[in-house]
Amino acid sequence: MKVVGVGCAPGMLTEEAIRVLRAARKVYGSRRAIEIARAALPRSCEVHEIRDYSTLGIPEDAVLLSTGDPMLAGLGDRGGEVVPGISSLQLAFARLRLPLARVSVVDGHARDASRAIADAVEEVRRGRIVFLLPDPSFPLETLAGVLRSEGIPCTIALCEDLGYPAERIATGTPDAPPAARSRLFSLVIGDFPGP
Length: 195
Fold this sequence. Notes:
The protein is α/β, with parallel strands linked by helices. Helix content is about 25%, strand content about 25%. The protein has helices spanning about 15-20, 30-35, 90-95, 115-125, 140-150; strands spanning about 1-5, 25-30, 45-50, 65, 80-85, 105-110, 130-135, 155-160, 170, 185-190. The strands form 2 sheets. It has a 5-stranded parallel sheet with strand order 3-2-4-1-5, with helices on one face. Strands 6-7-10-8-9 form a 5-stranded mixed sheet, sandwiched between helices. The radius of gyration is 18 Å and the shape is elongated. The termini are far apart. About 40% of the residues are buried.
C-alpha cells in the first residue's frame, strides 16, 4: 500500500504524488482527497470513497489518499510507503511569512478540545508558534478566554480554505479573536505580527 499526500488544496500535488497516482489501479480516500487527486488518476483506476476511517481495510496494492501531508495528523501511520504532500501547516506559515523552525503542532481534530487548548496554551507560553488543527466545532472562544485569563499576549490567525478560491486569513487577539466562517480551518497562535 502507498499513502499519498495530495496536498491541502487543488494544484498542490507534488511530482512524486502525480507519478504514483498515474500508476494507481485502486485508490481509496475521502471525497475531498479524491477531488484533489482526480486529474492525476487514470481512467481505468477503481476509486473508492471512504466515509468511515475506523474500519479501514485497504488492499496491499492500493493507494490511500491523505489530504495535506500524511504525517501531519494524517494517515501516515497506516503502514506502507508514504509519499509526502504539501500541508496546510506549510501553506499557512508561508502565507503568514513565519519560520517553520518555531512551530509546535497541536492536533485538536477529533480529539478532546480541552486537551488541545491546554497544549496550545503551554506551547505559546514556551515561545512557540502553535499550529492547531481543530475540529470544525473547536471552541475558539474558549481558547481565547484561557489565553486572556492567563494574560498571554499573542496573535491568533484563523486560516480558512487555504489554497481554495475562498481562502481567508483573519487575525485577532485573545481579546478579539477571529471567527470561523468555514468548516475547513486551522489556527496559528503565538507572538508574531499579523499579516
